[in-house]
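Task: encode each sequence below as structure tokens.

Item 1
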Amino acid sequence: MALFDLPLEELRDYRSASAEPEDFDAFWAKTLQEAREHDLDARFEPVATPLRTVKVYDVTFAGFGGHPVKGWLTLPTAADGPLPAVVEFVGYGGGRGLAHTHLLWASAGFAHFVMDTRGQASAWGGGDTPDPVGSTPSFPGFMTRGVEDPENYYYRRLFTDAVRAVEAARSHPLVDDARTAALGGSQGGGITLAVGGLVPDLAAIAPDVPFLCDFPRAAVLTDRAPYREIGNYLKTHRGRTEQVLRTLSYFDGVHFAARGRAPALFSVALEDQTCPPSTVFAAFNAWGHDEKEIEVYDFNDHEGGGPYQEAAQLRWLPSYL
């Protein structure tokens, strides 16, 4: 595979042409206000596992619409005081998986909260959170569910769940709410950007090869899923491009990035045809905090840095937590 996007020197200056809705902030303030009318009702049930170095809790909390959302909270066994916390969001099609698959951050001394992904979790990982909200006709996948109206769009529900996941994690007595970070890869990275723009007091964020950024460019630059779902939808629903892009503008990581108030560590892969590098740089260049870094993986596709990026995060996060 060869490079297919802009040269690196141009990527460092690239700015998205995505148009921000005038009521972007009002839309999200109303959405979160409505969600908070439901009691968070965060419950942490101990899980018996053969793991000796960590304690695991099966978490349920109220997300968008008060709908129950699942998660795992993993803590170092010896934890007896408030810990710095990492809230993680997972990639497209996945879910929280099994408890023993989330050991990295607790092993490094952090409280680790991983959110299940409503309505997904059937392509890999597995999960336990349905999406009880229906939608208008959509192309298979999640990118076009309710895409003709921001009020009904799937990611309105998912991003709201993610903000509530941070609140749920912070509600546990062994989590230090002043030392809470968000991270995730691909879709999880896009959700991390949304949380970074909607939760003003995070200590840090670390979006890894983030998805859901710079929709106007992504939808025409790559023919890979999931972005291609948008084009496939518009092939059938001719003449609705402007309407669809307007909806997507309320969920564009670039606009959340402009509201970011925490130090950030991004990553990008220059041969990534799933989340093209220009779309990642669009969010990175828009990020609103001066302390930001980006790890560049020259010859990688969507796997990005993989364990190398995890190592970079392990080196970087402690200075902020």
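Item 2
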Amino acid sequence: MPNRHEADRVIHGFPHRATVRASLTAIYRRLSPDGVHRYPSSVTADDVALGDDEDLHLGTQRVARALVRHLRLPEARVVVSFRPMEYAAAVELTAGPEYFVELNDRFRTRRRDIGAALAHEITHVLLHRLGLGLPSTAENEVLTDVTTAYLGAGWLLLDAYRRDGVESQKLGYLTPEEFGYVLAKRAEVFGEDPSPWFTSAVAYEAWVRGRAEAARERTAPPLAAAAWAERRRYGWERRRGRAARDAPYAFEGGAPATGVSFPCPTCLQRLRVPVGRSLRARCGVCGSVLECAS
């Protein structure tokens, strides 16, 4: 996991949009909707907090065990050590039964972020056991952040993003806004509101921006919840049989179009439905039932 201290090096926005979407689809395909719903509650701050008077190594092992339990890895014993290193943390993936995580020495004095660093590395263990991965190393790191956030431990990574007069720090491979987006996707499914958990003002702001992006997808045509102006534009483009370059949907079948494809707002799998009538579409990957005015 990268180790960034300088605030001006933090990338913002949604540069990993395609990989984030592919990751959400992959999670649902590998775990199934029932598997995803085995993670109904996020890990709590109390479970991963180290007190100032708590032994560093014993406390770190306790936090690691809490994250192993949260990610439903009862057989994985995680051995954690500290050493000087370029990155924030690293994990050695073996056949088990033990996994070895190394944390940057700086976490000895930054206890509040140990849970965040461990969450990312222990999610690597989960993905390793599931045999779930994407083609490149960079994509797999994004997948790990997305999985951590979507299964209820990634709010720790976003909250570790701080920028003030005392320190500037960001953990993970997603941008702050992308973390907020994935957390908002989770919130839509499980009815969680992570906003009270953020202790960092800039993390909260990133969550708000990510939530707005997720809400925009929830109200984009051909979904029936789309606003009047969006639906009017959609109807004009449907008659032409060609969507604008920035549109989330694509038409098929000439002019006027006879079909439209669009991403499921839950798992981002592409769906195809006929146009010209209201209908209910069921996503075959996550099981969401969507009201469409196509």
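Check on item 2: Strands lie at 77-83, 89-92, 98-104, 162-163, 168-169, 250-252, 259-263, 270-274, 278-282, 289-293. The chain has nine helices and ten strands.
End of task.
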